[in-house]
Design brief:
- By secondary structure, the protein is an all-alpha fold.
- The chain has one domain (18-445): MFS general substrate transporter like domains (Growth Hormone, Chain: A).
- Helices cover 75% and strands 0% of the residues.
- Helix 3 runs antiparallel to helix 17 and helix 13 (299-318) packs parallel to helix 16 (349-378).
- The longest helix has 37 residues, at 156-192.
């Protein structure tokens, strides 16, 4: 899962009576007005996700690790985001959703501070991985609690009004982490070396998470309080959700689609930053950490947002079934950009930025197909929210497996041949997009195109 993707709203459910789904009777004016907390809440979602998934790759590259090691271990620590169905019941059973948001933001700040210190111990690689793993668990719980505050506090009208803010400020988190923090680390590397540079960057990020915690302590509404439900009821409901998920018509086709749609992306995305940092005589672009931070700072995230918006209108007019192969092509064909970069090895940073932005434009356009398929073909039914969460978990697992082996493949093939292989690896996603059957959904049960 790349930064910038819209996260599922795991609490607004058709599984319970409407009265239980209604927003809480709490103030959304004054200091609890959504404008004070929605932007910062979704910035806080995006920041650690990008740090663990992308920025960690650049940090380990600067510290001299091999591509295969980096791709495997940085993929391994993303498993908690593939386990989101576990975190929902946990949050429903204890205290308030605001309490979980505050605890995980403070915990994230502490973990990043400890990660910064761990760069200076003899077993630094082991300890940094441990802290990245803890940050991933912490962030996955935070995302679930934050989404819970959003859907239980805001009315349906307010949810629609601020849904655009979610994606925009999630991308602000991307710009700050993959752009701003990486750029600062790149500047510091020149004068102080990579260890000191990344120590300062990670400590600074921990400080930012702590500041967000203080902000939300003052401005975030409480959110829904935990319901007293017996453990036996939780277990029974969980197994009922699981059984009904696999009873859906064409569900095996649906799972195949979720796993294969991102098969090529999962292999490419871990290697792209490594390829950009690699020396030119090793087939890379020889960019500095500072260059990469500058490149990813603005234009690729903006291109992603633009692609998502255009795809929404495109798909709304044609319907998902008629649009799916086009969306798949937009998602996969732009990976040829990286093959072109590997063959030409340009040195002009604006040219490289423009080409990467083109790929992000296609990524934003094509990812809409995956989101809508989960919403319209996987989620509908008696456990809409839980089944959507299962679908996102399967999607993330489908991304995790190919990304974990991508480093070994790139070391074996070299960057040029690896990106040729990536283009070949797009074929399964085209096949499944072409062949996947669609089950009819009664009109009154369909989610709105932009619903979460």
């Amino acid at each position: 899962m790349r930064p910038g993707e819209t996260l599922p709203k795991v609490f607004m459910s058709s599984d319970v009576p409407a009265a239980l789904n209604a927003p809480l009777k709490v103030s959304t004016t004054g200091r609890f007005h959504p404008a004070f907390w929605v932007p910062t809440l979704y910035t806080a979602e995006g920041l650690p996700f990008v740090m663990v998934n992308v920025v960690s790759v650049l940090m380990y590259k600067s510290l001299g690790l091999k591509d295969a090691q980096i791709a495997f271990f940085t993929s391994l620590v993303t498993v908690p985001w593939a386990m989101k169905p576990i975190w929902g019941p946990l949050i429903e059973m204890f205290r308030t959703k605001k309490a979980f948001v505050l605890a995980t933001e403070l915990g994230g700040g502490i973990c990043f501070g400890l990660l910064a210190l761990s760069l200076h111990v003899p077993q630094w690689f082991t300890w940094t991985l441990i802290f990245f793993g803890l940050i991933a668990v912490n962030s996955a719980v935070h995302d679930t609690a934050a989404d819970g505050v959003y859907v239980t506090v805001l009315s349906p009208k307010q949810q629609a009004q601020y849904v655009g803010w979610q994606g925009a400020f999630y991308n602000v988190g991307k710009i700050l982490s993959q752009g701003g923090f990486v750029w600062v680390a790149g500047l510091l590397e020149k004068d102080y070396g990579p260890v000191a540079a990344w120590t300062i960057a990670m400590a600074g990020f921990g400080g930012l998470m702590s500041l967000l915690c203080l902000w939300h302590l003052c401005f975030l509404p409480t959110g829904e309080r935990a319901k007293r439900v017996s453990g036996r009821d939780n277990v029974r409901t969980f197994f009922n959700v699981l059984v009904t998920f696999f009873q859906k018509k064409y569900i095996l086709w649906g799972i195949l689609f979720l796993v294969l749609y991102r098969f090529a992306e999962g292999q490419a995305i871990k290697i792209v930053p490594l390829f950009m940092r690699a020396a030119r005589d090793h087939g890379g672009l020889g960019l500095s950490t500072e260059d990469i931070g500058l490149m990813y700072g603005i234009f690729p995230p903006v291109a992603f947002i633009l692609g998502s918006i255009v795809a929404g209108y495109f798909t709304a007019g044609r319907g998902l079934r008629r649009s799916l192969v086009v969306l798949c092509a937009a998602f996969n064909v732009p990976f040829v950009v990286y093959l072109a970069l590997a063959l030409a090895q340009p040195t002009n940073l604006p040219t490289i930025t423009a080409m990467v932005s083109l790929e992000y434009l296609g990524y934003g356009f094509g990812f809409v197909g995956l989101q809508l398929f989960m919403m319209q073909q996987i989620a509908p039914g008696p456990y809409r929210t839980a089944h959507y969460a299962f679908a996102t978990s399967l999607m993330n697992l489908g991304f995790l497996v190919p990304s974990s082996i991508s480093g070994m493949l790139s070391d074996w093939l070299g960057y040029q041949h690896f990106f040729i292989w990536v283009m070949v690896a797009t074929l399964p996603s085209f096949l499944v997009a072409w062949l996947v059957p669609f089950r009819p959904i009664p009109e009154e049960k369909k989610a709105p195109t932009g619903a979460h």
